[in-house]
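Extended Data, panel c. Modelled sequence:
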Amino acid sequence: MTIHVRFPLIVPRIEGAHVTDLPPLALSLPLTGVDARSSIEVARQAEERGFSAVWNSEVQGPDAFTTLGALAVATDLDLGVAVVPAQTRSAVVLGMTAVSLAELTGGRFTLGIGSSSEVIVNRWAGQPFDKPLTAVRETVAALRPVLSGERATSEGEIVSIGGYKPHAAPPGGRVPLVLAALNPRSCRMVGELGVDGVCLNQLAPHHVPQILDQVADGAGGSLPAGYRVIARLFCAVTDDVPAARELIKATFAPYIATSVYNRFYRWMGYEEEADGVLAAQGDRQAMAAAVSDRLVDDLYCLGSPDEVAGKIAAYVDAGVTVPAIQALAFGRQQAEATLWSIADAWNR
């Protein structure tokens, strides 16, 4: 079944002979309906099927770090967090955890933080959400010495750290740090802070250059060689794209209702959808109805394995260096079927 999108699929690049100019896939965790122990087993299989990394996120659980600790000693995969909120753990705890995971992996761990949303930070965690970018900026300042094994003292408006020094320097001398970005201000801040990369979420291939241009502006006009662009790509292998669209609308409409994502969707050109979700005033059915087919087809990877792999290739062509595949599936069996079929198409 053909997916109707606003840009051409690049299926010919991944059909036939083995392709060497595309990066290896990364696995995005957690998986819906899959517990932490089973997720470790899935990740070990993913390594055998050519996945190079696992990037974990954190919303309702499992938490982002516990599973990665187990994977650190069970696999040779690169491991990363993309992302955890800057506000729900102190800078000391974030730094201590990052250095520990760097030790467990022998230097294969990357820490990712972001400003998150008012639901996660304020409603769930009970932390202030009035200055989210300040919280990220000050957390980065507090973390820099810690991630290099040095003593840190920083007194900010929101984040403070007083003389903490980790027990040892991490392997390689420093834990890499990447930041999430969802609007022009946060994109420019990512570039200005000179971190190792940017984490992207819920966007189309044609939005990637738009975001990277803002990051580059913040960095003084260009990004360094080796700059990492991690994107969580939501993928469903299906022969019933209309049904998949409706499921996605119901699942992701609440994101558009949060202040952070509502502004983000407006910036990406979905003003009508953003207005409609807010007008629904919490009615989930009405919120889902406000999400257009156009938005779903732009932001999600749906269809046959070749079509999904072609859409992923479009992200890479647009500038993504780490395509992290989030299976839109329920339970381990469906998740594995989705992941392995995409990997087979990608690696042909």
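The domain at 11-239+304-347 is CATH 3.20.20.30 (TIM Barrel). This feature is highlighted in the accompanying rendering.
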